[in-house]
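Task: sequence design from structure.
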């Protein structure tokens, strides 16, 4: 089986337990988060999602949408945006679609697909949002280049994901557990590698790290 298929199978089987793991409602989940990541909650997600601004009415691609756990609330505040959600896993997409429908969000389309071969035109999107995706994508170069291709000039690439070399304990858990489970896929980048990569093609508007998570908002250069 190809690496991509293995990842898809892994996330299909994880789709039922993913939300309880990530929503950090139980004390146990909070403890695990603190132990692995060094912080007790996913406040970084809120920070990332302060972009794009309320009232945004352009075209937004969310890749990978996963179960939409973090983005659902945000999309409720963007009723005039034209949103496309893509993921490789049908299981995760199914959960996202149920969640958005239950919240009455109607301006979202779902598509199964590969971030490394996006089924969209060049320059089609004003914003590409990628939350917690790059550490899972098997072909990260293809993901960088496809996201850049489908963004219009001046469009915003907003992302967060795991980077290596920041917190030794987190790196240990990723290498010994997350990679062997198939949740994360190496190679992982360092903070400097991400900065260099962005500097080539983007003008960086915001850049931060929280533990081993990097987040940024960067505008595609003309
Ligand atoms: C850790 S989840 C993140 C989901 C969501 N954005 C979040 O923050 O909860 C990673 C997601 O990446 C998806 N994925 C992995 N490889 C992919 C690929 N090549 N193309 C599109 N999605 C992919 C998985 O199916 C999974 O839903």
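Answer:
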């Amino acid at each position: 089986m190809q690496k991509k298929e293995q990842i898809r199978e892994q996330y299909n089987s994880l789709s039922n337990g993913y939300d309880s793991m990530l929503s950090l409602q139980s004390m146990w989940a909070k403890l695990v988060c603190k132990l692995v990541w060094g912080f007790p909650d996913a406040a970084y997600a809120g920070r990332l999602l302060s972009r794009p601004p309320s009232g945004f009415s352009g075209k937004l691609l969310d890749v990978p949408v996963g179960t939409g756990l973090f983005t659902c609330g945000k999309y409720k505040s963007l009723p005039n945006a034209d949103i496309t959600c893509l993921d490789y896993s049908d299981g995760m997409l199914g959960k996202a679609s149920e969640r958005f429908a239950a919240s009455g969000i109607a301006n979202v389309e779902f598509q199964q697909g590969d971030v490394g071969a996006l089924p969209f035109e060049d320059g089609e999107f004003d914003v590409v949002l990628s939350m917690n995706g790059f550490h899972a994508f098997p072909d990260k170069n293809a993901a960088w280049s496809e996201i850049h291709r489908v963004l219009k000039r001046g469009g915003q690439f907003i992302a967060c994901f795991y980077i290596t070399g920041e917190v030794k304990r987190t790196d240990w858990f990723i290498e010994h557990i997350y990679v062997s489970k198939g949740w994360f896929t190496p190679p992982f980048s360092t903070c400097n590698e991400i900065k260099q990569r962005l500097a080539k093609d983007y003008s960086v508007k915001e850049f931060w790290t929280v533990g081993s998570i990097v987040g940024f908002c960067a505008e595609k250069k003309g």
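Residues 3-220 form a domain with the Rossmann fold fold (CATH 3.40.50.150).
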